[in-house]
Amino acid sequence: MVLSLGCSEQISQLILSLEEVATVEQDARQLDQGTCNIPASYQPDPDHLEHSPMKYLRVNVHFMNSLDSANNYQGSKARAFAKELIEAANFYLGKNHKMALPVGNETPVLPTRYRYRITSSRGYEKQNGIYCHYDDQLFSFVTKGRARNTYNRDVIKRFGIGLDSIINVFIMPHHPDSVKSRSYKVTEAGVALGSGVKITGLFETGKPASAYRGLVNHEIGHVLGLRHTWSSNDGCADTPKHPNCWNTTDEPPCDSLASNNVMDYNAHQFAYSPCQIGKVHANISRESGRARKLVVPNWCNLDEKKTIYVTDSVTWSGAKDLEGNLVIEDGGYLKVNCRLSIPKDGFISVAPQGTLELFKARIHNACGDQWQGIRVNKRGKTEGNVINLAGNKIENVPILPPSDNRNTGS
Ligand SMILES: [Zn+2]
Predict the structure, then answer these.
(1) pTM, entire model
(2) What is the mean pLDDT, run by run of 10 residues, along the chain of 410 residues?
(3) Cα gap 271→308, rounded to integer Å
(4) How many whole angstroms from 219 Cα to the centroid of ligand 1?
(5) From ligand 1's centre to the CA of 346, what distance in Å?
(6) What's the structural domain count of the chain?
(7) Contact assessment for residue 281 and residue 288, using Cβ atoms and an 8 Å cutoff
């Protein structure tokens, strides 16, 4: 198969099958292994942000209320509150802050590269993913005492919508009986249970919705696989343990050891460490994981505007779900060491002086559709270089007869 790219440059092109790109054989054990499973492989690269396409998580918002409708926002107030809450949470996802701890750290501030999108599901389109429910048994969140229901999932099971693909955020009041008790503290609190999130204290305080963006980002952080950082090992070296101060005070230890990390309990909750961001994207990239199902799969279909042009030396040691074609330009050198999804009908193109190095790569379309394959371009005697080291798989491409394919002309 020949695709001419214009006579003036005398470039010809062929599409390779994996067998044809086997130019180097190397012992797989000599090379690094296991990078696909570590958060560091998924941290966005500030020099090539487009290599980590933005991920959009579906969310919906439920306002739980008593039958007399006295205990939560409803109607247009509920809709405005939900929109403001998610907008504020998104704003802070887009405005990551420098970590406060450890003291004197030089931890980089990376973009999170994920956002929420309020989503309705089939049959609920007119409601825009914001729902009000009235149920005297299930409306409240009790954080203390005999009636404590923090970990109870009944409200999620009864009113959840699209739990396999949408993060369901339940805004629940404290129970009016609890509130009457002097010993019961009406505070903001939350819990993540699977893809459901229960949060409380929002209606009672009368504060603006944006005041709770940290609570929402914290609980959704749990849904995406993040853990608290202050007391135990959260799997990240850049989130040290600390005394979990709410804010900076004049007294030790909170004079110097107050955290601002989203996964702690503090007044800020606006810093995500590189490892935490990497973890979220590692979980989204895991094909069998829960987090992936919550993401709008923009990687299925080709968006040519999202084509990635590699012009320098880059290594992709974590999985990637691309939304456009992948073009390795002259002088570009791309190493792929993990899963790489190319959108339907998309292609990989290697310029005559470009190099694509594959080691333990699996190149496919993550939605089970076909992509076009690897196009190698030739100028005179110079041909794009595809190095097939070991353990590679290419899937979801048309099967080409090798002899016809090789007949390129010039
Ligand atoms: Zn938590």
Answers:
(1) 0.90
(2) 46 64 44 77 96 97 97 96 98 97 95 96 76 97 92 97 96 93 89 97 95 97 95 92 86 87 92 98 95 96 98 97 98 97 98 96 96 95 92 87 46
(3) 29
(4) 6
(5) 40
(6) 2
(7) no
